[in-house]
Design goal:
The protein is mostly helical. The chain has 10 helices and no strands. The relative contact order is 0.11.
């Protein structure tokens, strides 16, 4: 589900906002968590289990790190957190890459596993690591409320493509948030600005890049125009998405 899609703009986002503001304060994080899991599972529901497993493990590790703060045990729990997170990311992202290179170097014919990369795994992996590292350094308290920690990790505005938010920067907002018309106005303006970047600029440049790619030209000017169009497309696509996420 993309921020610029009809499904998100006309159905998902309005319903999330409606339920968010009609439920009691103590249930707002539950609404955000449930909505974020739906958002993530919209395209790849089978990978939700890996994300939830990571959250459960790091919820426990965060408590253990705080409990043994200043001791070797705290270091051990942090190392386990890092190994698990980077190991899981590496398994999905680099297993086939290593198999391919081993085959090339050794002449073997090891079968490729064809492992699909879960959407957003890099972003939520580093968000989770931010949590355990901040707890280890004493910059933040271990989160005893599982829903609050899961909301931080899965929050749909930044789940798929960031931006990555450090736990210490958002810890207080997970429990205490204030809402005002000024914040609504600022957020809406930022979201619409990002939507314009994505739909009006990035998508248009994507069409131009597609034309360049399908055209059989070999001039220096042609390659420069293609490079500029493609570079600007990537920039405005990511910039627009980030603006919408922040908004």
């Amino acid at each position: 589900m993309l921020f610029s899609s009809i499904t998100f703009l006309y159905y998902f986002l309005p319903l999330v906002l409606l339920f968010y503001f009609i439920v009691p304060e103590k249930l707002k994080n539950s609404v955000l968590l449930f909505s974020s899991l739906i958002f993530y599972g919209w395209g790849e529901p089978k990978y939700i289990v890996w994300m939830v497993l990571s959250i459960v493990i790091h919820y426990i590790l965060g408590i253990l790190i705080e409990k043994h703060a200043g001791t070797k045990k705290a270091e051990l729990w942090l190392v386990i957190s890092i190994i698990f997170s980077i190991g899981l990311l590496g398994y999905f992202k680099y297993t086939d890459f290593f198999i391919s290179n081993i085959n090339k170097v050794t002449g073997l014919s090891l079968p490729m596993l064809s492992i699909a990369l879960p959407v957003g795994i890099s972003f939520y992996t580093f968000q989770i690591l931010s949590y355990t590292i901040d707890v280890y350094r004493g910059h933040a308290k271990a989160q005893k409320n599982f829903v609050s920690l899961a909301t931080y990790v899965t929050l749909f505005p930044q789940l798929i493509a960031g931006p990555i938010v450090r736990y210490v920067d958002i810890a207080s907002a997970l429990e205490h948030r204030t809402h005002s018309f000024a914040k609504w106005r600022t957020g809406l303006r930022r979201f619409l600005f990002g939507l314009g970047k994505k739909v009006l600029i990035a998508n248009s440049l994507g069409e131009i890049s597609g034309i360049f790619k399908s055209t059989n030209q070999n001039t220096v000017l042609f390659y420069w125009m293609y490079a500029v169009a493609f570079t600007l497309q990537i920039y405005f696509d990511f910039s627009g998405y980030s603006d919408m996420a922040i908004g």
